[in-house]
Amino acid sequence: MKQQVLVLYLNTSALDAEVLGWANYDGTGRTSPATGDGDEPPYETGVDALKDGWRLFQASQLMPPYPGHEYETSFLKHEFWFEKLE
C-alpha cells in the first residue's frame, strides 16, 4: 500500500472554503507533481477533495494573530492535509 498526500490551503478555516494554494505528493510513483505545475487547484474546496475519496488527517491549529500583527503577512494558516492509500 502506498500513500498519496494532498495539502490544501483554504481561504478560511472551513472545509468548504475556496482553495488558495495546494501541493501534491505521490508515493505511488505514477505522477511527479511539481510546485507551480498548474494554474487551477485540484479541487475548489476541501469538501470536494473528501467527496473524491481523500481522507482528511490533519488541519492547522487555529491561532489568533499576536496583538499588533493582525495585518502582517505570514504563513498560510488554513492548511489541511489529505491522503489516499493505493
Topology:
Blueprint: E1 3-10, E2 19-26, H1 46-51, E3 55-59, E4 79-85
Antiparallel strand pairs: 1-2, 1-4, 3-4
Structural account:
With 86 residues, the protein is mainly β. The chain has one domain (3-85). The chain is 7% helix and 33% strand. The chain is built from 1 helix and 4 strands. The protein has one helix at residues 46-51; strands spanning 3-10, 19-26, 55-59, 79-85. Strands 2-1-4-3 form a 4-stranded antiparallel sheet. A hairpin with an 8-residue loop joins β1 and β2. The radius of gyration is 14 Å and the shape is elongated. The mean pLDDT is 87.
Q: How much β-strand is present in the residues?
A: 25-35%
User: What is the domain tally?
Assistant: 1
Number of strands: 4
Secondary structure tally, helices: 1
**Element pattern in H and E:** EEHEE
List the strand order in the largest sheet. 2-1-4-3
Q: Structural class given helices, strands, pairing?
A: mainly beta
Distance between the termini: 5 Å
| Low-confidence sequence ranges | none
Mean pLDDT reading: 87
The largest sheet is: 4 strands, antiparallel
**Quaternary arrangement of the chains shown?**
single chain
As a whole number of angstroms, the C-alpha radius of gyration is 14 Å
